[in-house]
Amino acid sequence: MVASDARASAAFSSRDGPHNVRLTLAQRPRRNRKAEWARRLVREHTLLVDDLIWPVFLVDGVGKHEPIASMPGVLRYSIDAATAAIKHAAALGIPAVALFPNTDPALRDAQGSEALNPQNLVCRACRAIKAAVPDIGVIADVALDPYTSHGHDGLLEGDEIVNDETVATLIEQAVNQARAGADVIAPSDMMDGRIGAIRAELDAHGFENVQIMSYAAKYASAFYGPFREAIGADKTLRGDKRTYQMDPANSNEALREVALDLEQGADMVMVKPGMPYLDIVRRVAETFGAPTFAYQVSGEYAMIAAAAANGWIDGDRAMLESLLAFKRAGAVGVLTYFAVRAAELLRDGKY
Ligand code: PBG
To answer: pLDDT tens digit string along 63-80?
Structure first.
């Protein structure tokens, strides 16, 4: 039976009114959706706890769980509290966490020198977490924005973020974090040439096995707003990051950025933000076949959390649907502030 016959039959039958329509169709896609067992059988993509990376915000002190106004449900943890929360995450099966410090404003300066302090918040956290929860992967971000008084990821000379001078600091930051036990170094700064420079410096210090997850295609995005509140860079940031982060209008450029980072030794690449850039995730994953991650950033979290809090959407279902979308687009994993909640739902088989 071909489609035109079906249409003819429908048109003929409909003269008797809508209740008497008799379609004869060879292809009825709905058959495969008729029951949960059938839907499970034909399902193409699955969200697993293995896909989740949990970004964790850190703050100095003891026993702290500070709320972040623009990210309801997300907390800043002191190292002891973070370690306990990460134990729970590991027990749920979450493979890795990504650490982000809210540095004491008194320790921020124009050079971001605190980034190189072996006793800084992230380094202390790496050591504590690796000691208490050795089997979870610890990802440390490389960029200067949690440490600079001007809130930029790099060094400022006049109005310019100077590339090569910044890279010279980033390679030291990377080694500092590797020494503290970071398993993965994740450069989020978008300076040119930093992946190769960091790889060489890590190797020169005997850290050949420390992986690099590159924020390869990172866009200058309004969706980072709540993150900047979380790390305390919202008030410090002067200007914007458009001279180093990518123009949201570009797609081919993302492929060039990813190609450069892979050539320079990135083990994993990331696209960021996530949901508004699924097309980029798809192109990167298909073009290179390298482990490709998406970062569902703070603003994406905030939108889902805010709509859910208002009762406008079912928060859990919207969250899981958004995470599954990354898998469908070709990502092997997702950095998401929902990681713990998603892992609990997956464990309980709720969805
Ligand atoms: C900074 C960095 C940012 C994020 C991760 N690393 C913000 C920025 O570039 O301004 C954003 C994460 C998020 O919004 O959740 N190096």
So the answer is: 999 999 999 999 999 999
